[in-house]
Amino acid sequence: MNGIHDMGGMHGFGPVPLEENEPLFHADWESRAMAITVLMGGWGRWNIDAARRAREDMHPAAYLNHSYYERWIDALERLMLETGMVTEEELRGGEPQRNPPEGKAPPAPEAVAAMLRRGGPSLRSLDRPARFQPGDQVRTLNTQPQGHTRLPRYARARTGTVVFHHGAHVLPDSNAHFQGENPDHLYAVRFTARELWGPKASVRDTVTLDLWENYLEPA
Amino acid sequence: MSDDHDHHHHDQHSHLPPDPALRVQALETLLVRKGLVDPASLNAIIDTYANEVGPQNGARVVATAWADPAYRDWLLRDATAAIGDLGYEGRQGEHIVALENTPQVHNMVVCTLCSCYPWPVLGLPPAWYKSEAYRSRAVREPRAVLAEFGVALPEETEIRVWDSTSEMRYLVVPRRPPGTEGWSVERLAELVTRDAMIGTGLARTPEETA
Predict the structure, then answer these.
(1) Whole-model pTM above 0.90?
(2) Which of B40, B53, B112 faces A8 most closely, judged by CB atoms?
(3) How far apart are CA A32 and CA B210, in angstroms?
(4) Which of A175, B80, B121, B207 is most buried by its number of CB atoms within 10 A?
């Protein structure tokens, strides 16, 4: 989707907000928000792409008005509603129904380390051979999908060079909408700064993005 | 039509941020009462990223690569395995690629779409990495961004920006400072800053740590 989250190349946000001796969290609630989000993900009711999609679904004004972990909490509440883990009434302060899904217990403290070490690999096997090889020239499609995508606006309809083939990975565009993992070949594709930003950009600098075969055509 | 309008109106208002501390506390209370969250598990997650997983991990990876050419080759060939060998793996670092800086190429990592960052080696990202300013500008004017970090590189050096758009995670291996020949991994690791491994900084020199 052409959302506010897709901010590569935008003007107007000012200098990078550097902070001396920045704390890991700026308030206790930020650490709780992070941990609740990670732990609730452990129920397996959604995936990382759906979580990103939920954050992108915020109204653009709300997205910018919320701090980072506020976006996480806002998206988490909507994911829990979407998957039936909580109800509107409960979120509004109604009496909670005790209903751990299928009678299972939440991840126990001693299981947390293993959960974090396991992570969620996105590499998949795929019989279909890769269409492109390192060195190939490719062009990104000029798509305007309404749903989730990882092809930023600034890199659409641009020509670049494949530098890595990362193997086949879960396709976020479908996985984010619970429409299947649809593994697809993933490539690192390098674009010159001038291809992306025009003739005033540096002649030497480049930007490399990871792009699925689904986003590309031969140049 | 009026329904649509009301709906939109409602959405706007429900997305005005209330006090986040109260909101998160209410949410945690709800989820605990529903049996969905164990507060001790939340504490374990926070403790992991506060005390165990952070840029000290990545610094050890980089210092090991500086000290051991065979490890460096492995890291550049298969970073996930080489980093896993030092005990760092998992969430938000399932697939890692190491990028070595040279006199010709300076690598710099951003996530324009969200905040993708290699957690097992760098921990949770700093606020500036997640900021609108960094996300919007790093791809379009990396040299201006680097200047704000106090980093100036020659025109001849290619600034190679990596936009983390997939589950691949990128770790920058900064250039080893001169005057560190024969140093131990532990001593070298003190020169490797978080920003150097994102590519918005350089490794510290022996003079800077003296």
Answers:
(1) yes
(2) B112
(3) 38
(4) B121
